[in-house]
Fold this sequence. Notes:
The protein is built from eight helices and eight strands, in the order H-E-E-H-H-E-H-E-H-E-H-E-H-E-H-E. By secondary structure, the protein is α/β, with parallel strands linked by helices. It folds into two domains: about 70 residues, no CATH class; about 140 residues, NAD(P)-binding Rossmann-like Domain (Rossmann fold). The strands form two sheets. It has a six-stranded parallel β-sheet, with helices on both faces. It has a two-stranded antiparallel ribbon with strand order 1-2. Helix 8 links the parallel strand 7 and strand 8. Helix 1 runs antiparallel to helix 3 and helix 7 packs parallel to helix 8.
Amino acid sequence: xxxxxxxxxxxxxxxxxxxxxxxxxxxxxxxxxxxxxxxxxxxxxxxxxxxxxxxxxxxxxxxxxxxxxxxxxxxxxxxxxxxxxxxxxxxxxxxxxxxxxxxxxxxxxxxxxxxxxxxxxxxxxxxxxxxxxxxxxxxxxxxxxxxxxxxxxxxxxxxxxxxxxxxxxxxxxxxxxxxxxxxxxxxxxxxxxxxxxxxxxxxxxxxxxxxxxxxxxxxxxx
Length: 222
């Protein structure tokens, strides 16, 4: 259960249409909530209690707000694992999440806990950049693990950040087969065949996969 589920339940009780969209800062349509699934068990409790004349809509709202407070206080950050740190974005994302800007505090819900160095032997700059970004990530509290499996064992979600798109299918397969929601930094892969294979894996294991440039949501590039 997440705060988004609790809010979805509250909106359901209040009759708010969760399928409606509103424009974001760039004019793109966005849903009110990312996770629009209400908590069915809580709705069932509400239906049972509504049979009592003393249980009004106001009390339903109070019950849901209590659940929101309890969930918010108990919720831990989403633990993120990074595969391939040769891309400067591995550090940039980590810094944003560990110290969110004042105008975007929601970024505080993510924490990078582990990373696997990666790097490609035939692309010298990736090996240089691995060593370049490693100490900065360690300062952010990120543990550098010796294997991909060790990273997957410690995280809730994965970011594939190495710039070598040739490795993305293999890395994505490991994350998806472990059922870890996965973000793949550009390029998504080195070929259309690899991209299709990644989405096929995501469908087979019912695991979300997403890829884009970090500039997609940057106002200066929209």
